[in-house]
Amino acid sequence: MRKLKNNELDRLSIDDFKSVKKTPIIIILDNIRSLNNIGSVFRTSDAFLIEKIYLCGITATPPHKDINKTALGSTDTVAWEHVEDTNQLIENLKLDHIKICSIEQAENATMLNNFKVETNTTYALVFGNEVKGVQQSIVSNSDAVIEIPQFGTKHSLNISVSCGVVVWDVFSKIKAL
Predict the structure, then answer these.
(1) Rounded mean pLDDT, 146-153
(2) Residue 150 half-sphere exposure, CB side, CA atoms within 13 Å?
């Protein structure tokens, strides 16, 4: 088996990426502190053709060298917008019939492996602050709360890892419809 070279991967150009049909997933970053985490989320979002990223509250915005370090150019492909108030954003998205899913450990949360996607539905996946998680007001106003099953001694995953796990799972379920 031979590793493929970059020019053999048949990747989209930036223009092609911008015009191709996107996966009906929106990412909401709720007060993320780490610029490297933000960049990693951009890169994951590029890989799975995410519709848009909302950078909320204290979440930094491109261009920034520490975001660019992990984003590797994906800030030029993935649509994004900064919104100061995550709660107001959630209300606006709900008016557009977008299903809000907080990624959090909460009472009666649905385990990711049990989460079922619906046809013709756009999902907004909310990822929270590295220390405090998703704001309680957002969790309370979510259509679903999804928890990533974990079996070790730690009680959380890095936000960029969580994003990769959840986006891959939801992307796979949407593509299987």
Answers:
(1) 96
(2) 16
